[in-house]
Amino acid sequence: MKIASRLFLALTALVTEGVLLSKSHAQKTVRDVAYVDSAHESQKLDVYSPKDAKDLPVVFWIHGGGWQTGDKANVQLKPQAFMEKGFVFVSTNYRLLPEVDMETIIGDIARSLHWVRDNVAQYGGDPKRVLVMGHSAGAQLAAIICTDDRYLKAEGISLSMIRGCVPVDGDTFDVPAIITTAEIRRLAHSQPQVKVGHREKFGNDPEKHRNLSAVTHVAKDKSIPPFLILYAANHPDTSAQAQRFGSVLNASGIRAVLFGAKETTHSKINEDIGVADDATTKALFSFVAESLK
Q1: Is the dihedral of CA 6, 11, 15, 19 positive or negative?
Q2: Residues 255, 261, 265, 267: is their CA dihedral positive or negative?
Q3: Degrees, nearest 5: CA angle 158-177-111
Q4: Smallest Cα–Cα separation from 33: which of 25, 44, 43?
Q5: Residue 144 is inside which H or E element, if any?
Q6: CA distance 30 to 17
Q7: Is 50 exceeded by the pLDDT of residue 137?
Q8: What is the pTM for the complete model shown?
């Protein structure tokens, strides 16, 4: 028991120092890197790099969890899958509701991308070739950071560093629409409204709802990157939101590819990214290759 405890402590120490080598010694993982000075415990990120990485494109991943939970470590097969394709993979944390508001969360994502621009080259990444991706709440954050350029501009950076955006099964690209949909559905079925729904998370101000919606900020000549919008085809809300967002992007001349994954769920579509022969993964890597040409 003492030996096991010592081994656990030794491993924990390695993680704290920030460097872990994979079993094959082919990759390096650096954990808990603060992306701001005097960082909150949630203002940290992990970097996964192939061995001898240099000038590789970067995947910047934003976890989900309803803006209230989740962690940068919940990445399943993604780091390995992308490293095998020649990418550096960055997974970020951010402060959560209700400790901070939604605008502060988006600001944390922008600060994390600022760190990527300034520091990812040290880990073998190319800061000029970044792909932003995220699942669920992370999909909303990915979409808004890639359309509402005010957050990046506040950090002294621009959308030009982002080569593509992949939101995965998000339901809040149009916040007023999801609030209306959810509340009318419950009203129609004589069900009580939920205590902590989208209205509570995004606030009661309709103008704020619009400002936190990616569809509001889509416009030509903003350097908005191409999008691959992944969603579970049998999920009515994420399907409707994907189609709404995609139509707004395409109407503005911004390339948007929609992929509705069949026989999957909100959780499974995320967990299966990187699985061999997974249709969503194939669509993702096809889009990534096209975006990096």
Answers
A1: positive
A2: negative
A3: 25
A4: 44
A5: helix 137-145
A6: 8
A7: yes
A8: 0.91
Place of tokens 């009580």: 192
Q: Rounded distance, CA 100 to CA 91, Å? A: 20
31: tokens are 């954990």
3-state DSSP call for residue 31?
Answer: strand
| Residues 83-105: tens digit of each pLDDT | 999 999 999 999 999 999 999 99
* 108 close to 78: Cβ distance less than 8 angstroms: no
Please report where in the chains the tokens 């990046």 appear, as a residue.
Answer: 152
In the chain the domains, ranked by start, together with CATH numbers, are: 23-291 (3.40.50.1820)
DSSP code per residue over 230-244? EEETT-HHHHHHHHH
As a whole number of angstroms, the distance between CA 64 and CA 138 comes to: 5
Query: Cα separation of 123 and 233, whole Å?
Result: 37
| Residue 194 one-letter amino acid | V
